[in-house]
Amino acid sequence: DAGVIQSPRHEVTEMGQEVTLRCKPISGHNSLFWYRQTMMRGLELLIYFNNNVPIDDSGMPEDRFSAKMPNASFSTLKIQPSEPRDSAVYFCASSSTGGNQPQHFGDGTRLSIL
Amino acid sequence: SQKIEQNSEALNIQEGKTATLTCNYTNYSPAYLQWYRQDPGRGPVFLLLIRENEKEKRKERLKVTFDTTLKQSLFHITASQPADSATYLCALERSFQKLVFGTGTRLLVSP
Predict the structure, then answer these.
(1) Using one digit for the tens of pLDDT, what is the confidence trace for B50-84?
(2) For residues B96 and B72, what is the distance between their CA atoms, to the nearest angstrom?
(3) What pLDDT sits at residue B51?
(4) I need a labelling partner for B12 at 20 to 30 A (CA). Which of A49, B22, B65, B108 fits?
């Protein structure tokens, strides 16, 4: 079975540019999560969706960040405009709905903003 | 404030020994706790979940304990192998479906 698929794996862009990260969750999973991982702060939840609806976006750092889930098999995380401090690894994860479900992570997008 | 602590220093052990990793937390009352493994350049991979009413959980060479009084979980790998070398993350339920992760402990198993 295919796991969570993220693209691109690496992105290098200049400050001020728009960045779009993409995620395809595991088929049948109702919940989707976006995380950011840095050495300083570890793995932080940015936003999560249930049945394509954003449930909690309290982790989104600021208005420059936005996320959408137009259907059950696709989500995007967009940063506009990007800044050097946004450089990190961004992970997408999916799970079945439920309070004790394991989360299945993609291999992340390593984002570098110059 | 809420905090999850894992040893930030790497744990070095010899092959065949038991590795024990610690996860301490404050100001949480999680209904469950999860452990994940992360290899360089890869996403975390789920290993085990333990509920608040469970003292211990086992899976093959892995064992997890959960002490809600001490606010601590211990993660054990018995008969460790070089292939067990990775970073191990604990994660607590913060609210429904929201996990908060520790910063992880890097384990190095030498042949």
Answers:
(1) 998 998 999 999 999 999 999 999 999 999 999 99
(2) 21
(3) 92
(4) B65
pLDDT digits (tens, 9 = 90+) for A40-61: 899 999 999 999 999 999 999 8
CB contact under 8 A, A45 and B98: yes
If pLDDT is split at 50, 70 and 90, which confidence band does B30 have? Answer: confident
Which positions 41-70 of A are in contact with B (Cβ < 8 Å)?
Answer: 42-45, 48, 50, 55-56
Q: Across the interface, which of A91, A97, A102 has its CB nearest the CB of B34?
A: A102
| A1 confidence band (pLDDT: 50, 70, 90) | low
A6 pLDDT more than 90: yes
Q: Is B30 on the interface with A (CB under 8 A)?
A: no
Pick the closest to residue B106 from B60, B35, B39, B24 (CA basis): B39
- Cα–Cα distances in angstroms (integers) from residue B54 to residues A5, B51, B68, in the given order: 34, 5, 10
Q: What is the dihedral of CA B64, B66, B67, B68, to 10 degrees?
A: 170
- Cis ω for the linkage preceding A81 (within 30 of 0): yes
Token pair listed for A2: 């295919």
Backbone angles phi, psi at B71, to 5 degrees: 55, 55
Instruction: Determine the residue of chain B that is closest to A110 in CA distance.
Output: B41
Residue A95 phi/psi, 5-degree rounding, is -155, 165
